[in-house]
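*** Fold description ***
***
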Amino acid sequence: MISSRLCVRCKGKLLCGLSYCPILQKYETQLKVAKNVEEEFAGTSPPSVFISWYSYPKVTVSPLSAAERIRNANLLDFPERWYGLPEQKIIEFRSLLLMSGKSFKASDASKPSYELIDIQELAMSFGQVDVDVELLKKPKPKLSFSAFAGPLGPKAPLKRLELGSNPKIPRKVDYLVSDVDVKANAALLELYNAGFPVSFLHKLLSAGLLGVEKNRKLVPTRWAITAVDANISKELINEKVKSYETIDKYELYHSNYLDNDFWVLLIPSSWAFEQLECWLPGSTWMSNAKEYHIIQDHELYEGRKEYASNVEGAYYAARLAVAEHLIGRRRQAACIVFREIGAKYSVPLGVWQIRENVRHALKSKPLVFETLEAALKFLEGKLVIPIKQYIKESKVIDWLKHQKKLWDFSQSA
C-alpha cells in the first residue's frame, strides 16, 4: 500500500504521483452509498456472499447487494468479465455492494437454519437475485481491500434477509448440492468440467454447500478461492496434463494489465511449474521501499506437498490458467511465470487478476525460441529486473540445467 505517512500528509493532493486517489474515490463512493441507505431496503445481489476469516471457526457471513434494484448487477461480482477494465471501474463496482453481515459457526453449514438456507440459495444462483434487507443500523463507510478477493464496500450488521425473486439455480448445481455423499473436490471438478466459472465455484464452497453432509462447513472466502484454484488445477495436471506429449519449442507469452507485467515461459519438458514475483518499489506492498524484492514458489513433476507460502493464492491462480491452456492443446510442458508488479498497482484487487492475466497471455501468439538461453536472453531486454537475479532465485531453471536426460545415461553406459 501507499505509505500511510504519505497519505496522512497528502490528503488527496496526489503526492503519490497517481492521476487519482483510489482511497478517496472508494471512500467517496461508499459515503454516497451509505448515506442513501436506510435500515430497510429493496436491493439486488449479483449474487454474492462474503465470509470472513477473522475469529474462525466463528465467521461473519455477509450477503453482498446493491442498495437498490439495478440491472446487470451480476457484473459487480464476475471477475471473469473484468479483464481490461480500469482499476477505478472495479473499485466503483465493488463499492456499490453493501455487506450485511451476521455471525455463524462454520459447522452450521452441515445443518443450516432457515436463515442460513436463504443465504446459501443466494450463493447457488447463477443470475442476479432481488433481495429485501433489514439492517440493525445504517452502514458506515469503510475502505476494505483484500489480496485475495475484490474490494469490499460499506458494512452493517444484518437483521433480516429475504429473497425478493427466485434464485436461478442450475440443475447440475442443485443436484450436487443435494447429494450429501459426494466429496467436495469431486463436485467442484464436475461443475468446472460442466463450464461453470471458478468465481462461481468459490461461492459454493465458501457457503458450505458441497461435500459430505457431516463435513460441510462455511469456508472463509479467501480460503475458498485458493482451495478451488489449487484443487482443480492439481486434478487437471495429474489426470490430464501429465499424460500428454511435451511441446517441442520454448514458447513465451505476455500480458500486462493493472501494472502487472506477466511473461509466461513454456518449456519442452515434463511438468514443472514456478512463479517468480518481483514487487517493484512503490507497488502495493513496497510503497516505502527503495529496493525490489523477488519471491518464488515452485513444484517439479511430483507436485507440491506444502502450501505455496511465498506467492500464496497467486501461485494457484496462475497454475490453473496454465493447466487449462495445456489441456486445450493436449500438450505437456514445464512453465515459469515471471510477474513484475509496478507502482501503479496501488491497491490489491484480488487474485482473479493473476488468473485472468495469465489466461489472457496464453491466448496470444507466442514468441518461439530454440533454446532456454535464447528465451532468457530475450527476457533480459523486457524485464525491469536483471534476468540474472531471476535465474539466481529460480529453482526450475536450476533443475532444467542439471536434470539428467535419457541420452546422458546412454552416453555413459
